[in-house]
Write a structure and sequence with these properties.
The chain is α+β, with helices and mostly antiparallel strands and about 300 residues long. The protein has eight helices and 16 strands.
Length: about 300
């Protein structure tokens, strides 16, 4: 048949299911048509009839019928300004991963009333690879700092598993109102989402956060290092509020009373400061993200001691 191609499976696609392979390279191919092409043996693997869930191996040969139109559908373009913008967020890059320093206010993925987000700009970060990098974890829209991307599907699987099993140590920096007389320790308080808000609840999921107060202004403000040992939504924000130390600029977890202060920019003072990737690399590997300017200014305004 004219236009038929025999495509060899790349190393980066080793282990992928056949249906996901077609979704990756032919995003405009509908599920119904894909299934029909399988039934009529127009799609084969190594000359044999295949199933949608067939696992592909490197160098397998896929018979692909003419699908030029399906290949072009859903291709995305990133504007020149967004391309330069997201390139400037890159703080580390190698063959395995890319690390961004995400600004506060930029969502990781799209949603209601959210059209501009990291996920929509990832095509600009291929840097010579055939595929765009993949999201393997998320941070809140209003939280700034480290966001790790996998540069291929295999590394995405490795990182997703490592994040899920908490093998990558994450450290956040928070500027809080209030103070605790115990300078370091663990916050063990189960969390549950109630009425759209994460709260400490006996019936909630286990949540543990290590913290250390590295400097404070009396009992008014504290600079806190926080390491979540579990991965609950809004964990640090809810735990800090539970400790009567709500994070400055938090519009959702602000304690019993919201306090506005003209000294500070009205932004969440929570920053994903560093991540320990040693588990992935088999050697010491820590990446740090510079604090945003407004956070640095707030620290200076309060005369707190912190050296990056």
């Amino acid at each position: 048949m004219s236009g038929v191609q025999i495509v060899r499976v790349k190393n980066s696609d080793d282990g992928i299911r056949l249906n996901r392979w077609f979704l990756k390279y032919y995003p405009g191919l509908s599920l119904g048509r894909f299934q029909k092409l399988l039934r009529t043996k127009q799609i084969k693997v190594n000359g044999q009839k295949a199933e949608a869930n067939t696992r592909l191996q490197e160098n397998d040969e896929i018979r692909v019928p003419p699908l030029d139109n399906e290949k072009k559908v859903n291709e995305t373009t990133v504007s020149f300004s967004d391309k330069k913008f997201i390139e400037n967020l890159v703080i580390y890059k190698d063959e395995k991963i890319i690390v961004l320093n995400k600004p506060s206010g930029l969502a990781v993925q799209g949603g209601t009333n959210t059209s501009r987000h990291i996920d929509g700009m990832l095509d600009a970060l291929k840097f010579g690879k055939d595929e765009k990098p993949k999201l393997v974890h998320r941070i809140d829209k209003d939280t700034s700092g480290i966001l790790v991307l996998a540069r291929d599907r295999k590394m995405a699987d490795v990182l997703t598993k490592a994040f899920r099993e908490h093998n990558l140590g994450k450290t956040y920096l928070a500027l809080t109102r209030g103070w605790c007389d115990k300078e370091f320790g663990e916050i063990k308080a189960p969390l549950e989402k109630i009425d759209g808000r994460v709260q400490v609840s006996e019936g909630g999921k286990n949540a543990v956060t290590e913290y250390e107060i590295i400097d404070n202004v009396g009992n008014k403000f504290s600079l806190v290092l926080a390491c979540p040992l579990t991965g609950r939504t809004h964990q640090i924000r809810a735990h800090m509020e539970y400790m009567d130390m709500p994070i400055l600029g938090d519009d959702k977890y602000f304690g019993n009373e919201r306090i506005k202060d003209a000294m500070f920019q009205k932004k969440l003072h929570l920053h994903a400061y560093k991540i320990d990737l040693s588990y992935i690399y088999g050697k010491k590997m820590v990446v740090k993200a510079k604090l945003p300017d407004y956070f640095i200014e707030s620290i200076k305004t309060l005369g707190l001691n912190f050296k990056e």
